[in-house]
Each structure stands twice: as structure tokens, then as C-alpha cells.
Specification:
CATH superfamily of the largest domain: Zn peptidases
CATH class of the largest domain: Alpha Beta
Number of domains: 2
CATH architecture of the largest domain: 3-Layer(aba) Sandwich
CATH topology of the largest domain: Aminopeptidase
Number of helices: 8
Number of strands: 17
Shape: globular
Radius of gyration: 20 Å
Strand order of the largest sheet: 11-12-14-13-15-17-16
């Protein structure tokens, strides 16, 4: 029996793995950071045995309250991910499972590998409507991919979609996959209509280094990208530096920043109520966008979410606030759960890649409902 994590997005430290019923593990911290919660590892040689895998340092994770009601993800083929019995008690997270294969993967959420990222980007770039630009490199030397869909023309709106600033929030890139699949579908009349009215700029993965390294929240330097938007630097956060620089070139009418939330078992959107010089009309559009999304996809709701900032109190280092203020744009952060959704649970798969993709597709309906007001 062996536990390993020396692969793309792998993260676990083995303390003891001699007895299947008492496997002791720890999650490795993000490099140069105190953040940790993402785990992803492979168990081999334990087929048919009851395995109890305990993560001893779960209580010190970045969002320890998020373990309550959480169920880990498991897959033997790395395609279909299901939920498995998981218990959090006295600061330890124990996963219990009888593997049906001699090779089984466990993860905090279904991983979205860098190989899959490259496949998605390459497939999109084959479409004649799409241009791919590498707008810079990360600290580890990976490409920062930007997909431009459609061509700018007078009167067209500018829509930005960015995802996975926090690399452990892999659901964000599953969302983008669904979003792009529909937007590039020539047989979808709504998508064709949107492309007549807007040009789209999509960054499917804002944090390739953290993704490959198995980080929860930071890049290769240990920087939390979503606290760098007011003054990004090439030395610590080139990802934000390059993307914000491109945004300065294009401007924007609407931006959707896609994330995952460790604690709340809901899909929701947070806006920009606390920015200076708040544009009330833009905020109304953001609220209408959410109402439309809730109508077309019951996995989305508006009752639960983050507390709204008081007027003038916004943290301007956060993308949603900085971009709303900098470009007078409709700026929204969309959060999805690591757990299942409380309002529409699925005990077998929980919140899953397929549900992420479908929510990505549904966002085009919401956008179509408000685009003429941007």
C-alpha cells in the first residue's frame, strides 16, 4: 500500500501508512504562506480494504469551519468523482472508504489539471471566433492564457471572465469550461446573439503556478492574488499585473470573477456595494443578473452569501471592488461550494464538475438579460 502526491496539483504529507485502518496524513502549506486546505493524493494497493485516512492538521486549515458537513471527493478513473464518508472531529478529518481499485484518488474537490487546461484552451483556439494570446509568464514560467472571443467594434460591450485566482478552487475552471462550450456553440442562438453584441475576454486560470503546486490560495511567491488588484507587481504577482494591464487596454462593461467558498453550501454572487463613487445603476444591473440566473438555474440562490460592505468601506485590493471602481463596470464575484448545495443536494456527487459546467452555461442567460443595459 502506498500514498503519493508527486503529480500535478498533488498535496499530502504521509505520517504513517502501514495499516489501512489507521493512515495518518497532513496537508502541506502553500509555499511562503500559512494557507492550506487543498489536498489531492493517490492511494494504491488497498483494493477491497476498509481504509481510514486521517488528516491530522485539518483543524489548523485556513477555513476549518468548512470541514463541517464536508464529504471528500474520490475517483478511480479521474473522470467521475463521487463523495465518500468523511468525518471532522477534534481538529482531525477522517476519510473512510473501501477502494474498488488498486489506484484511487482523493481530493478536496475534483481537480482541474493543467493538462486539461491546455486541452480546453487549445480546443477553443481552433474556433475561428477565438484568438489566443499569451499575455505574460508566471513566476514558474507558465503561460498566462487569454482567450478573446469575437472582435471589437463600435457599440460592442466588453465582457471579462476570470477564474481560479485561488488555485484550490478548481470548480471555477470547470465553470469556465461550461461557459466556453456554450458561448462557442454555433447552434446556440443565444450565444450567437451575445457575440453580436459583445466581445469576451476570458482567463480560464489566473493562477497556473498555485494550481500545479497543489496550493489552496496563493501563487508561487505565496501571494494571495485577490488581494493584489490595487497595486500588482511583477515580482510577487505577475498574474494580476498582466491581466490588469490588458484590462486597461480594453476597458470593460462587466466582469465575472469565478471562485469557490470553503464554508458556505450555496452558489451566490457578491458585488461592490462598498466602493467609492458607487454607480447605483450598475449595482441594479448586477442584482438583476442574479435574479435572472436564479430563475434559469435552481442551483443558484440570493438569500445566503457574504455580508454587504458599508458605503465607502470596500477593500480595494480585491478584484470585484477595484474593477468596479477602476472601470465603472458591473463587477461580480461568483462563489460555488466545496460541499454540496444545501438547497439542491445530490448525495452521490455533491457539488460536481458537471453542475459547475451547467452553472457556467446558465450565466449566458443571465448576461443576455442585462447586456443591453450595460
Amino acid at each position: 500500500m502506498k500514498i503519493s502526491s508527486n503529480f500535478d496539483s498533488g498535496n499530502i504529507e504521509v505520517i504513517e501508512a502501514g495499516n489501512p485502518g489507521n493512515i495518518r496524513l497532513r496537508i502541506r502549506k502553500d509555499h511562503n504562506s500559512e494557507f492550506y486546505q487543498w489536498f489531492h493524493f493517490r492511494l494504491t494497493g488497498a483494493k477491497g480494504q476498509l481504509c481510514a485516512m486521517t488528516i491530522e492538521n485539518a483543524g489548523g486549515a485556513a477555513y476549518a469551519m468548512g470541514w463541517e458537513g464536508y464529504q471528500a471527493c474520490v475517483s478511480s478513473d479521474r473522470e467521475e468523482w463521487q463523495r465518500v464518508s468523511t468525518v471532522y472531529h477534534d481538529g482531525e478529518l477522517t476519510i473512510q472508504h473501501i477502494p474498488e481499485s488498486d489506484s484511487v484518488y482523493y481530493a478536496y474537490f475534483a481537480p482541474y489539471s493543467m493538462d486539461r487546461h491546455h486541452d480546453m484552451v487549445s480546443q477553443a483556439a481552433e474556433d475561428e471566433k477565438v484568438s489566443l494570446h499569451v499575455i505574460g509568464e508566471t513566476l514558474d514560467g507558465q503561460d498566462m492564457d487569454l482567450l478573446t472571443i469575437g472582435e471589437m467594434a463600435v457599440g460592442k460591450k466588453v465582457i471579462w471572465v476570470i477564474a481560479r485566482q485561488h488555485p484550490g478552487e478548481s470548480m471555477a475552471e470547470w465553470f469556465v469550461e461550461g461557459f466556453l462550450d456554450r458561448l462557442l456553440d454555433d447552434e446556440d442562438a443565444l450565444s450567437r446573439s451575445l457575440l453580436e453584441k459583445a466581445v469576451f475576454y476570458v482567463v480560464p486560470n489566473m493562477n497556473p503556478d498555485g494550481s500545479r503546486r497543489g496550493h489552496l490560495r496563493t501563487n508561487a511567491a505565496g501571494a494571495n492574488l485577490n488581494r493584489e488588484w490595487d497595486n500588482p507587481s511583477l515580482e510577487t504577482c505577475p498574474e494580476v499585473f498582466y491581466v490588469r494591464g490588458k484590462m486597461d487596454e480594453t476597458g470593460m462593461d462587466l466582469v465575472l470573477d469565478v471562485h469557490g467558498d470553503e464554508d458556505l453550501p450555496y452558489n451566490f454572487i457578491a458585488c461592490f456595494e462598498g466602493v467609492p463613487d458607487l454607480d447605483a445603476a450598475n449595482l441594479d444591473i448586477a442584482y438583476d443578473y442574479q435574479r435572472q440566473l436564479m430563475q434559469v438555474n435552481p442551483d443558484f440562490q440570493m438569500e445566503k452569501g457574504y455580508d454587504k460592505d458599508a458605503p465607502g468601506s470596500a477593500d480595494m485590493s480585491i478584484s470585484t471592488n477595484q474593477l468596479a471602481h477602476r472601470y465603472q463596470a458591473v463587477s461580480m464575484i461568483l462563489e460555488m461550494p466545496f460541499k454540496d448545495t444545501a438547497n439542491c443536494p445530490n448525495p452521490t456527487h455533491g457539488w460536481s464538475p458537471e453542475r459547475c459546467r451547467k452553472l457556467g452555461r446558465s450565466n449566458l442567460d443571465a448576461l443576455a438579460a442585462v447586456i443591453d443595459r450595460l
